[in-house]
Design goal:
Helix content: 25-40%
Distance between the termini: 101 Å
Strand order of the largest sheet: 5-4-3-7-6
Number of strands: 7
Number of helices: 4
Strand content: 15-25%
Structural class: alpha/beta
Order of helices and strands: EHHEEEEHEEH
Largest sheet: 5 strands, mixed
Radius of gyration: 30 Å
Shape: elongated
């Protein structure tokens, strides 16, 4: 069987690396899986991320072991999303999906049992692609800035004149005028 190659953004790679450092210190059973993920991954530039690549905060549809399809958001920590709508990358399932492309399948090794096949069916939302699309739309919109329509010469009054501020008596009716 050929080795699965995952593609991670520099941010995603750094998150997995930090998780590994913390988990290794406590002999967590997910540490070997984190090591494998880093060893089997290639870091790609954020600007070259395809819209069908599962990155952190991506909304993905997947299937494990031939079970029903599920849709979740890949998150760094469980507390960052409503219950049932997220899948932390600190779990073996979330870790397996991170860096996969839509249509790609892999054999996910479980820390507590036999390996299970995972299929990433779709990436419904990906933050890097959404950011790039928003930037492209902003570049296409006309810029609504100030534009000089007419420039008066210095000899024209009042723009180029040398008027003086003067006050004349009786301009302001005060209390005595009432």
């Amino acid at each position: 069987m050929t080795r699965t190659v995952y593609r991670l953004t520099a941010k995603d790679f750094a998150v997995i690396e930090a998780m590994l450092m913390r988990r290794r210190a406590f002999a967590d059973p997910i540490a070997p899986m984190l090591e494998r993920k880093l060893a089997e991954s290639r870091v790609i530039a954020t600007g070259t991320v395809e819209p069908d690549l599962a990155t952190l905060n991506s909304r993905v549809t997947f299937r494990f072991g031939g079970g029903p399809s599920q849709t979740r958001t890949l998150v760094q920590a469980e507390a960052s999303a409503p219950v049932g709508s997220s899948l932390p990358v600190a779990t073996w399932r979330g870790l397996c999906l991170l860096g996969m492309k839509a249509g790609q399948s892999a054999l996910a090794e479980r820390p507590d049992g036999p390996a299970e096949e995972v299929l990433l069916e779709d990436v419904a939302y990906q933050p890097e692609a959404a950011r790039r699309a928003a930037r492209d739309r902003a570049a296409e919109r006309p810029h609504h800035g100030l534009r000089l329509v007419h420039s008066a010469s210095a000899g024209d009054w009042p723009l180029g004149g040398r008027g003086k501020i003067r006050q004349t008596e009786g301009d302001d009716p005060g209390p005595s005028a009432a």
